[in-house]
């Protein structure tokens, strides 16, 4: 039997729902993949437009992830200085094969130091902030 690929999508207050559920739909339909919605605890989390989403695991019981995905949304601002979240991402990144983001999720990865020295993009209105985090901002996908 093939070992499943563990993909973790960070769920956080004020996430943009589509930034989370779009990748989830694609990842969860992939054979031999286990997709986790991860947050600090397992309580429902409110998106930026009021949709309540339920984490499938928390930081303490999240398995080692092969792929990390950080979606965007206005809640990203608080995450950029949230030491618990940034430490979780750094710890998981040690064994992850891919570290990814959607939209302003790249700023969270940048704040965790995981994009230092790399080229990355973000929402056009936030892209320049990447340079402040040691990232080369690019106008590309």
Structural class, please?
Answer: alpha/beta
Major β-sheet profile: 5 strands, parallel
| Ends apart, CA distance between termini | 35 Å
Shape: globular
The amount of helix comes to: 10-25%
What is the strand content?
A: 15-25%
**Strands side by side in the biggest sheet:** 5-2-1-6-7
**Rounded radius of gyration (Å):** 14 Å
* H/E element sequence: EHEEEEEHHEHEE
Please tally the β strands and state the result: 9
Number of helices: 4
Mean pLDDT: 91
Low-pLDDT sequence parts: none
List keywords for this structure.
4 helices, globular, two-stranded antiparallel ribbon, 141 residues, five-stranded parallel β-sheet, single chain, 9 strands, alpha/beta
Describe the structure in your own words.
The protein is an alpha/beta fold and 141 residues long. The protein contains four helices and nine strands. It has helices spanning 17-28, 76-79, 83-93, 105-111; strands at residues 5-10, 33-39, 45-46, 52-53, 57-58, 67-70, 98-101, 119-120, 136-137. A five-stranded parallel β-sheet has the order 5-2-1-6-7. Strands 3-4 form a two-stranded antiparallel ribbon. A two-stranded parallel sheet has the order 8-9. β1 (5-10), α1 (17-28) and β2 form a beta-alpha-beta unit. It is globular. The N and C termini lie far apart (35 Å).
Helices and strands, with pairings:
Layout: E1 5-10, H1 17-28, E2 33-39, E3 45-46, E4 52-53, E5 57-58, E6 67-70, H2 76-79, H3 83-93, E7 98-101, H4 105-111, E8 119-120, E9 136-137
Parallel strand pairs: 1-2, 1-6, 2-5, 6-7, 8-9
Antiparallel strand pairs: 3-4
């Amino acid at each position: 039997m093939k070992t499943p690929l563990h993909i973790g999508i960070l769920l956080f207050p004020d996430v943009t729902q589509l930034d989370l559920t779009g990748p989830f739909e694609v990842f969860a339909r992939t054979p031999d993949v286990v997709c986790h919605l991860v947050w600090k605890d397992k309580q429902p989390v409110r998106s930026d437009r009021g949709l309540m989403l339920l984490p499938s695991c928390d930081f303490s019981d999240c398995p080692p992830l092969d792929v990390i995905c950080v979606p965007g949304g206005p809640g990203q601002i608080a995450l950029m200085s949230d030491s618990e979240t940034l430490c979780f991402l750094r710890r998981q990144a040690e064994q992850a094969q891919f570290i990814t983001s959607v939209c302003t999720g790249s700023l969270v990865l940048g704040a965790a130091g995981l994009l230092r020295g790399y080229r990355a993009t973000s929402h056009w209105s936030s892209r320049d902030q990447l340079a402040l985090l040691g990232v080369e901002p690019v106008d590309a996908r």
